[in-house]
Specification:
It is built from 16 helices and 21 strands. The chain is of the alpha/beta class and 476 residues long. The protein has 3 domains: 175 residues, FAD/NAD(P)-binding domain (3-Layer(bba) Sandwich); 112 residues, FAD/NAD(P)-binding domain; 107 residues, FAD/NAD-linked reductase, C-terminal dimerisation domain (Enolase-like, domain 1, 2-Layer Sandwich). Strands 1, 2, 3, 4, 5, 6 and 16 form a 7-stranded mixed beta sheet that branches. A 5-stranded antiparallel beta sheet has the order 17-18-21-20-19, with helices on both faces. The chain has a 4-stranded parallel beta sheet with strand order 10-9-8-14. Its EC number is 1.-.-.-. It holds the Pfam family Pyr_redox_2.
């Protein structure tokens, strides 16, 4: 092999996380030659530092919480969790941070993997610098797909660099339980990791700049999660900012906007995400390094005929399942254009349009209790100028909820467009509601009329009977 090797492909994919893998899968299924470039592990953030390890950590926490609410069982689960076993299970679900299995899958679909740092070097060209300093030039006949994801965004606080703070990566991969943990932020990462580490024995303080947790959901979701965290022993402080941090020996010292001094062994900043586009050569194709990529509904970067931005990098929905959905759309759009299809199905809900990104994005937060939502909240619908009605039901009134857990606490809301009588959004909060959200996604994405939903009969006695209660409340 020469020092610089040039190879042509139909498609070059930057990033081998779930999004890049799915783009490659769809283009390879269409018969296009595809190269995938990855600078870390094949499988990406989700497999090693996000979805898989975080849910592995949360599962025993939530299972114990659920069991403690079941008569005849609760007395058996009052002790502490087996921390080494929980962490070992997390390690297993993260494949012990080895990507052999993911590499084998990628090779199995016929894609070529290049390890190293990939950068655009002008139109349809990617240079790869390998781990040994070797250089390759990959050219794309049809498309380059940027699937490099996002990273934790840290604030510019005095003393932060010296503190060596946790981000989501350290929070999901830590090998021991900190005695005291400060969590800065009130979103998904903050609430899930506070749930985990408090249950594993850490004394957790959550500092939230805003008025509540999970601010992108209906207010009642964050309120119930905050209530349960507080009852479990977490110190949740709303309307609290961090002004500075430092380490004194092995202790982290954080000073709040009100002048309070807080001490901990570790501090986690869960304060947002930034695109991993700062060093991928965007400037060589006229784009701003470090920027989010603006794309159309086929995921093609606006103004380009060959560049695609798929997953977190386009900032449409920073969720693995939405990124994979986008990847399926993008892969098929790339294949259709490569085949010379004159008109793609880009109408709403067409095969080549990522319409769900606008109308039906689902999310589950795996806290105790779970919070799940799809579509618009009441505030979002009203800001959009829609004429809507919010319908609320206390989940404890549903027979299945009482059977699921003694003293079940939860709430449900659906947002109905009064002009079309279809659902614009649904939110559930309560134990076990994560498994309800796909039914809501089908109703919202399918634009199922309320009159038709009335004939979708929920099984008794399940928590899904909340659908009947919501419809009854709407009909009066």
């Amino acid at each position: 092999m020469t020092e610089t090797e040039s190879i042509a492909y139909d498609v070059v994919v930057l990033g081998a996380g779930p999004v890049g893998e799915n783009v490659a899968d769809r283009t390879r299924a269409a018969g296009l030659s595809t190269a995938v470039v990855e600078s870390e592990r094949v499988g990406g953030e989700c497999s090693y530092w996000a979805c898989m390890p975080s849910k592995a950590l949360l599962r025993p926490v939530i299972a114990r919480a659920d069991a403690r609410r079941v008569p005849g069982l609760s007395h058996l689960v009052q002790g502490a969790l087996d921390v080494p076993a929980v962490l070992a299970h997390r390690d297993h679900e993260a494949s012990n941070w080895r990507d052999d299995g993911q590499v084998a899958w990628l090779e199995g679909i016929g894609a070529d993997l290049y390890r190293g740092h990939g950068r655009l070097a002008g139109p349809r060209t990617v240079t790869v610098t390998g781990p040994e300093g070797e250089h390759r030039v990959l050219t794309a006949r049809h498309a380059v797909a940027v699937c490099t994801g996002s990273r934790a965004q840290l604030p510019g606080l005095p003393g932060l660099a010296e503190v060596n703070p946790w981000t989501s990566r350290e929070a999901t991969s830590a090998q021991s339980v900190p005695g005291r943990l400060i969590v800065v932020g009130g979103g998904v990462v903050a609430t899930e990791m506070a749930t985990v580490w408090q249950a594993l024995g850490s004394r957790v303080t959550v500092l939230v700049r805003g008025k509540g947790l999970l601010s992108r959901m209906e207010p009642f979701a964050g309120e119930l999660v905050a209530r349960t965290l507080t009852e479990a022993g977490t110190d949740v402080r709303l309307g609290t900012s961090v002004e500075s941090v430092r380490r004194e020996g092995g202790t982290v010292v954080a000073v709040t906007g009100s002048g309070d001094r807080l001490e901990a062994d570790e501090i986690l900043f869960a304060t947002g995400r930034a695109p991993r586009t700062d060093d991928i050569g965007l400037d060589t194709v006229g784009l701003e390094p470090g920027s989010w990529l603006s794309v159309d509904d086929t995921l093609r970067v606006r103004g380009s005929e060959w560049l695609y931005g798929v997953g977190d990098v386009n900032h449409r929905a920073l969720l693995t399942h939405q990124g994979k959905y986008q990847a399926r759309i993008a892969g098929e759009a790339i294949a259709a254009r490569a085949a010379g299809v004159p008109l793609l199905e880009t109408d709403p809900w067409g095969a080549h349009a990522a319409t769900a990104d606008h109308a039906a994005v689902p999310q589950v937060v795996f806290t105790d209790p779970e919070a799940a939502a799809v579509g618009l909240s009441l505030a979002e619908a009203e800001r959009a100028g829609r004429r809507v009605r919010a319908v609320d039901v206390d989940l404890s009134s549903v027979a299945g909820a009482g059977l699921y857990a003694d003293g079940y606490r939860g709430h449900a809301r659906m947002i109905v467009d009064l002009d079309s009588e279809i659902l614009l959004g649904v939110t559930f909060v309560g134990p076990g509601v994560g498994e309800l959200i796909h039914s809501a996604s089908v109703a919202v994405a399918g634009e199922v009329p309320v009159s038709r939903l009335w004939h979708a009969v929920p099984s008794y006695p399940t928590i899904s009977e909340v659908w009947l209660r919501l419809l009854e409340a709407y009909r009066g």
